[in-house]
Specification:
single chain, 497 residues, mainly beta, ten-stranded antiparallel sheet, five-stranded mixed sheet, 3% helix, 52% strand, binds beta-D-fructofuranose
């Protein structure tokens, strides 16, 4: 049974999307069908296609009662919208269907596990959102909410847990056929932790243990966890709220953390070894991963930052896009991220330059321009005796605007800088990180898609994402050196039919 609320959302989105032309959207990044989008949800491969759901408020370009939007793709780049999958239409989720995940059941049906939110009056008269875990099962288009919902509620929380912060289940199946899920939570003092639950059938769940805990290190509540094996290690991803920076490694506010370690299957114990931020740019949050049929671990995140997500005009027809899906690997104890290999199939019209040397100059290269491009830049010192001081790539540039990637080899610091991108807001426009460069050599891959830039440093050792609102006519690219550099550049247009 499809509720009237969902019917209304489906009718509304089908009508309203006609007012948005393809040119007003990114070319190959998934943007919301209409209204507002935040976290990716239910990312999975089902019936021969990638399904991606998302936190969705169709009626407004600002956050509101959460629905689940839905899109499918065969290559993670060309997306087709399906009708909205969930609406907040039951007593247990009347105030929102928050984030969650998906998987295929033994009988071929598709299961969604999500957080149901309902506002409840507290003894002191205030309204608080109580969060429980719920299930919906369907065929890849229409989903029916389970009559036994919620399947996990405050009774299933360990002692000392905050029942207002219990959300974002990530579900998976073990080799023995049993189910596991991890859920974001925090203590009553708001210290983040990830809870592990188990189930025989996917419907009846049992609390197992605290899989990981913050102990005051990375922010407060831990949202949107994911957990998987990769290259002989186990990786836990989470997006903490209220972070404090640690040097250049984390930044204030809502950030992302990757914990790399080992996992003892027998005792289901995760032992942390390393931690790092996931994305070092400005706009990236709440990533979710899948294992593809050929065994690639692919991650997609919301390409936005919560602190700047409420500043746009309510008349804007859409707000929110996903980042480019990334293939993950673990090397030397670090998470590496690179654009999905499918992106290469969009490459056309390559323009290549080798050994371009320049000193204390700003140069443009014939044919190197564009706003939907895939560009590789390798830079190295042009003078053996003296390391250059700074190297910059400017893009989305015209007489008035540009966005930049800067690199200072002496300090090994990289920075994205969108101060001159056309934003009139007094918000964060620059972010820095340390990169690896022993001798001033650096390798970049820069992906532009109309309203965003994603920069992958040293074959995926660091990734930096940002959104930008610069008009599409600003399509220039220039290179600036302080000191002497030599560089190779190859640029492809990305052609999306
Ligand atoms: C993260 C988040 C999730 C929640 C959802 C609500 O961005 O706060 O924890 O499920 O967004 O839209």
């Amino acid at each position: 049974m499809i509720s009237q609320k969902l019917v209304n959302a489906r009718e509304y989105e089908a009508k309203k999307e006609k007012g948005i032309t393809p040119e007003e959207r990114p070319a190959f990044h998934l943007s919301t069908r209409v209204g507002w989008m935040n976290d990716p949800n239910g990312f999975c491969y089902y019936n021969g296609a990638y399904h991606l759901f998302y936190q969705y408020h169709p009626y407004d370009s600002h956050w509101g009662p959460m629905h689940w939007g839905h899109a499918v793709s065969r290559d993670l780049l060309h997306w087709e919208y399906l009708p909205a999958a969930l609406a907040p239409d039951m007593p247990y989720d009347k105030d929102g269907c928050f984030s969650g995940s998906a998987m295929e059941l033994e009988d071929g049906r598709h299961m969604l596990m999500y957080t149901g939110v309902r506002k409840e009056k507290q003894p002191d008269g205030t309204l608080r959102e109580v969060q429980t875990q719920c299930i919906a099962v369907g065929d890849g288009t229409d989903y029916e909410k389970y009559e036994g919902n919620p399947v996990l509620d405050e009774k299933d929380l360990p002692e000392g847990s905050c029942r207002f912060d219990f959300r974002d289940p990530k579900i998976w199946r073990k080799e023995d056929g049993t189910f596991r899920c991890i859920i974001g939570n925090c203590t009553e003092e708001r210290d983040g932790r990830i809870l592990l639950y188990s189930s025989e059938d996917g419907y009846h769940w049992k609390y197992e243990k605290v899989l990981a805990e913050n102990k005051g290190r990375f922010g407060q509540m831990w949202e949107c966890p994911d957990f998987f094996e990769l290259d002989g290690k186990y990786v836990l991803l989470t997006s903490p709220q209220g972070m404090l920076p640690q040097g250049l490694e984390y930044h204030n506010g809502n950030g992302t953390v990757c914990l790399i370690g080992t996992y003892d299957e027998e005792t289901e114990t995760f032992t942390e070894e390393r931690n790092q931020a996931i994305d070092y740019g400005i706009d990236f949050y709440a990533p979710q991963t899948i294992l593809t049929p050929e065994g690639r671990r692919i991650m997609i995140g919301w390409m936005q930052c919560w602190s700047t997500s409420g500043l746009h005009s309510p008349n804007q027809p859409w707000f929110g896009q996903m980042n480019l899906p990334r293939e993950l690997s673990v090397k030397n104890g670090r998470l590496y991220q690179n654009p999905v290999q499918e992106l290469e199939s969009l490459r056309c019209q390559g323009v290549k330059y080798e050994n371009v040397d320049f000193e204390d100059d700003c140069i443009c290269l014939e044919g190197i321009e564009g706003r939907t491009i895939d560009m590789e830049v390798s830079v190295r010192p042009g003078n053996e005796a003296e390391l250059y001081r700074k190297f910059t790539v400017r893009f989305a540039q015209d007489e008035n605007y540009y966005t930049a990637f800067h690199f200072w080899p002496e300090d090994s610091i990289a920075e994205v800088d969108r101060r001159f991108s056309g934003s009139r807001e007094d918000v964060i426009h620059e972010r820095r990180c340390y990169v690896n460069s022993a001798d001033g050599s650096l390798k970049l891959r820069i992906i532009l898609d109309r309203f965003s830039a994603e920069i992958f440093v040293n074959d995926g050792e660091h990734a930096l994402s940002l959104t930008m609102e610069t008009g599409q006519e600003a399509d220039g690219i220039s290179f600036v050196a302080e000191g002497a550099v030599v560089m190779d550049v190859v640029k492809y247009d990305l052609c999306v039919e």
